[in-house]
Every structure is written in structure tokens, then in C-alpha cells.
Amino acid sequence: MLSTSWFFSRKIGIDLGTANTLIYVKGRGIVLKEPSVVAVRKDTGQVLDVGTRAQKMIGRVPENITIIRPMRDGVVSNFDITKKMLREFISRVYPRRFPFPLQAVVSVSLDVTEIEKKAVLEAVRQAGARAVYLVENSIAGAVGINLPIEENEAIMLVDIGGGTSEAAVITLGGIVSKNCVRLGGEQFNSAIRHYIRKKYNFLVGERTAEEVKIKIGSALHTPGKQQLEVRGTDLMRRMPGKLILDSWEITDVLSELVASIIQAIKKTLEATPVELINDIIANGIIMTGGGALLKDLHRAITKETKIAVSLAENPLDSVAIGTGKMLSSLEMLKKLA
What's residue 100's pLDDT? Predict the structure, then answer.
């Protein structure tokens, strides 16, 4: 039950993602968007930096410093570091001098277990929140892009994040069918790195793999091959080197992961009551999340499902915006959180 203190508190929405953490403050919008990355001293456990500054250290740190991603596959994988990361992010948004208690709405994956939910709740509480309310990514994303989820009409949303991809059919304020696979943009990057190392005996960093994905990655082969020069380490010579990659080979690398996402969408459609299918065909499938930006992914899904797919106007921020909108409506929060 929501306490009356809700009305006299600082309120934030948190999109706690595998790749990035976003914080929405009521009345201010999204005020923080940082990578979910922490730099830690190995000997003392001291947190040296968090977010963008920690991400810039990847591949550049000495042996006594380690770079940790405390969120994996959409869930907390390192409780203590997640707590410290959130505490730092929240302190940037709300300095400790603010007297009112902190209350938070946090988005979680459809696939989280009760134990994983408790880990999120406890991490956010120990980071400074007095009360924490959880909402599924799909619900928050739908609210964030103003979909009429409380009406008697089905809407299908596909959210592709850094570590999870989930499909959900929503009507009357609830989820009637869903499916989730624990893969997303981070797995795309890892697959590219693994392929380059295996085929070319060439090592590239995480940021380079992401650049390859963004610049020449695609869910479908397109006429004309694009090429991209990357730099890394030639493992045969154990020396710095250059390598030319083409878009078709990267499409092949990503094809299995794309197929898994499409299979999750198909399973969701198969589990959807037949009375709702016409609504989905009429409204189409809406995609959110950073992974949804992969070139031609919407076309690949349309090709397999025969249903039109569109990209949300602001796919990277829609979940965070949704948690923020729920902060403004006590009635909505009671129904959905």
C-alpha cells in the first residue's frame, strides 16, 4: 500500500539496465543517463569511478583496477557494486542535503525471479530510497510512449535492451502474454568480438565491437557491402594491426541472435488469445530499447511475422520516461507497480 509520505517525498524513476542506467526526476525529466559500469580497486574494493568515466577506462586500466558491469542479462549480478553505483548516481541527482525521503519506481525485466526482484529492491533501498516500487519494462515502455494500455485493445511491445529482449501483449493495464530471452545489445557486441578473434585471430575491444555493430551491423543482408576498418591486436604477430570487415559477414554473425529474438516474438503471438490478434495486426508491433536500433531489425521481424513493426520515437529513453510518468499519477502507480 502506498504511504501518504508519497506526496511529501523526492520521487525518481530508474531504468536500471545492463548497458545503461537512466534516472528520471519528477518535474525535471531524465536527468542522468550513464553506462552501468564501475571501476574498482582490486585490493581495497574502493570504487574509483562510475558511469561514463569508468567506461572510458575499459581496456586501459592497470592490474590493480578492475572494471565491473554489476548488471547482467537485466538482473543484479553483483549486489554490492550495484548498490554503490546507484548510491553514486542518486547523489548526483539529489545531494544529501535534501530533507525529504526518497521514493523510487524501478523498471525490471519480465523474466526476473522473485529472488532477483528482491535483489533490485534491496539494492535501491540501500542506495538511499525509503520505498521502492517495481514495474515491468514493457509496461513502463508502453507508458513512456503514450500507448493506451488501459483500454480494451491489445498492444504488442518488444523491448530490446542491453541484456534482455522481451515481447509482451498488453491490454486493460495488464500483460496477457509474454516471452523473454536473456540477450540484447551486449550479446551482439560479444558475438562480434568472438567472431573477429576466431576467424581473423585478431582482438578488438568492447567499444570497437559496438562501433562495428552500429556502423555496419544489420539484421538483414542489404544490396552492396559496406566496409569498416578496425584497429586492434594481431594475435599472430602480437602487434597492433588493422582489419577490414564487411557488413554481410557481421549480418551473418548476428543472425542467430536475431533469430532468437524473433522466436520470442513468435512465441508471444502464439500464446496470445485469438480475440486479440486482430488488434495487434491493426496496431502493429512497437519496438523500444537501444537494441531495437540495429539496422533493419524491424524489417526482419515484419518478414517473419507478417505484422508491421515500427520503432518508438525515443526508444532509448521510453522505459525511463514511463517510470517518470508513473511518478505523476498515484492512480496509475497503484494499478501498474
Answer: 72
Name the grid cell of 100: 525529504
Which one-letter DSSP state was computed for residue 162? Answer: S
The answer on 168 and 270 residing in a single domain is: yes
Beta bridge partners of 72: 75
| Look-up of cell digits 517518470 | 324
- Across 286-309, average pLDDT: 97
Specify the pLDDT at position 96. Answer: 65
Determine the Cα–Cα distance for residues 57 and 64; give it in Å rounded to an integer.
13
CB 102 within 8 A of CB 12: yes
Helices (H), the chain: 52-55, 79-93, 114-126, 137-144, 185-200, 206-216, 247-270, 274-283, 297-305, 318-327, 330-336
Express each pLDDT in 138-170 by its tens digit. Answer: 999 999 999 999 999 999 999 999 999 999 999
Provide the number of structural domains found in the chain: 2
Q: How many residues does the chain have?
A: 337
Residue 255 binned pLDDT confidence (cut-offs 50, 70, 90):
very high
- Burial class from Cβ neighbours inside 10 Å (0-12, 13-18, 19+) for residue 266 reads middle
The answer on 266 and 183 residing in a single domain is yes
One domain, residues 96 and 178: no
Q: Which three cell numbers stand for residue 84?
A: 554503490
